[in-house]
Amino acid sequence: MAEGLPPEHVATRLRKAVGRPLDAWREVYESFSPVDVRTGERRPRIPPAGADSRRAAVLVPVLLEPEGARLVYTVRRDHLPDHAGQISFPGGSMEPGDGSLLETALREAEEEIELSPDLVEVVGELEEMYIPPSNFRVSPFVGLLPPAAEMVLAPDEVEAIFTVSLDELMSPETLRRVPWRRDGRDYQVPIFAVGGSPSRNIWGATAAMTASLLVRLGWRGYRSLAGE
């Protein structure tokens, strides 16, 4: 586990671990998919064969504060066409001017939270995430930020910026299942229930990407979602 590690040790471990494939990536990702209570089915995390999915990228920012490393999240504005009102990492669709998906992630982070790319040490890429409702294939890039990194939200896109310590995310009390009803169907949804004012529930693709990062630091809490 990574609880209590100084941020510089977390940074060293991430530099080593993020660049390597995660053997259990699909299990980790799908363990955070909503579960249909009636059928037990979960949303897939890879696109169906022949699917013409859209490409997108996000930055998973790790803020290396002296008291411990923290992940940076945003709350999307309610009027946005995709994933409105949800908690996410900074990111969005690839645009024609982007030379790569990494450029997409850094550009979107600069647009959404005024995070200068010069402050970001990109240490690697997590496995691609498929999001069925929006038909996106998302590439998550992990970036380390210095304690002095300034972030200012773009009010037309972002409702709020907040951070959560790795210690809190890895705590057994943080990982929960909550009931959710949508389109007349009942689901059980795994979440990271984090404190603060206000308290927030991190779920869906963002929770799965969070878990993928935590697993690389030794966390195994996702196994409880499968009853292990």
Could you characterize the architecture of this molecule?
There is one protein chain. The chain has helices at residues 7-17, 25-31, 101-113, 166-170, 204-215, and strands at residues 35-36, 54-65, 68-76, 87-88, 91-93, 121-125, 129-131, 136-145, 158-165, 175-182, 185-194, 200-203. With 228 residues, the protein is of the alpha+beta class. Strands 2, 3, 4, 5, 6, 7, 8 and 9 form an 8-stranded mixed sheet that branches. Helix 2 (25-31) packs antiparallel against helix 5. The longest helix has 13 residues, at 101-113.
Question: What distinguishing features does this structure have?
Answer:
228 residues; 5 helices; four-stranded antiparallel beta sheet
Task: Report the uncertain regions.
Answer: 79-84
Average pLDDT, rounded to a whole number, is: 89
Describe the main β-sheet briefly. Answer: 8 strands, mixed
- Binned, the helix content reads 10-25%
User: How large is the count of helical segments?
Assistant: 5
Alpha-beta content class: alpha+beta
Q: Which percent range describes the beta-strand content?
A: 25-35%
